[in-house]
Design brief:
This protein is α/β, with parallel strands linked by helices. Helices cover 49% and strands 7% of the residues.
Amino acid sequence: MSQADPQPPVPEEPTVELPLLELRDGLSDVVDTDPALTEIIEAFRAGTGSVAVDAERASGYRYSHRAYLVQLRREGSGSALVDPIPFGDLSALGDAIIDAEWIIHAANQDLACLAEVGMIPRKVFDTELAGRLLGYPKVGLASLVSEVLGYRMRKEHSAADWSTRPLPAPWLVYAALDVEMLIELRDAIEAELRREGKWEWAEQEFAAILSAPPREPKPDPWRRTSGMHRVRNRRSLAVVRALWEARDQIASSADISPGRILPDAAIVEAAAAMPADRDTLQKLTAFKGRGAHRHMRTWWEAVDHARHLPDTELPKQGPRYDGPPPARAWADRDPDAAARLSAARTAVSEIAEAHRLPTENLLSPDTIRRLAWAPPADADLTAVSTFLRDHHARDWQIALTAETLTNAIATEPAAKID
């Protein structure tokens, strides 16, 4: 072949199409009667091994975080879709599987709503958390099932309104698929954790999930309103607070997601515009929706109340902190602490990278900040280890980080080096 002859095309690598995950046993009826629940309880009591558990909420549609569907699968029991709404309490079902390990993907998202219906595990295996410990870049259920087991999952109904009744059949198939491969996924991931010497880490993490105290509500939740960077003064902050609290009361009473009552954009727009009367308020772009118009009197009363608050009752410009101030302020307020934080973050990041871990799973960023801001008076290995343990670090985390952090916080700040 001469140099002028065209070169033959290089064949492309064939695209491997993963098989679509299907229900092995077909779609079962939703359990929503007492006889059906009794039957399922006995079936799962008689099953063997771990139990795959999932729950569907109506986030984005409802104010509450209650479970609107509970899915389970167990060897010898098959799969079940349980509607908790007709029963309210599913503690008998929880008791039937209480001695089994519950496999839950992203357990922190589901444990609260499961506990609300009386289902509280004694032992869990969190497949999402395990995926993080193994360094998978994507730890969503569909991604792990694809990467580890080689199946493609349907995810088109992940944002559905699960409070809908009756639930459409395609949604139920989607929900059932969420537990279809959890047992196999758990076994494959355990094997990988053991190969990498991370199984004890995972056991400690799973135990910590169950022993964690209930989350305390954050102070000033209205400060998490999206777009708050546009709010420039304390009077405007008062408008945000008043509208947020008025919206929250309506949303709670109606069990509707707050954003469906009044979007955050409307709250921020009103705070920025500071309207002097109701007509001006309702002419704002974000207040022209049906939801905003329905409660216009309430919105105006909230804005007007904030406009006339005495200065002494206006919210502070910055949020309240129960710990160190924002790290961006450290360089000016305490340069030594800023230097300790930089050294500690670098040290933890290097350890995490060496062990193929997300930094936040090696050690909580909040714990690192607190250690750098107010280290123990005797910053030796014992004191640092005790500090980490007091801030809920697990033994495996302390073993990996305590010595390096001790050296990091004892390092003389660069600004003081001659």
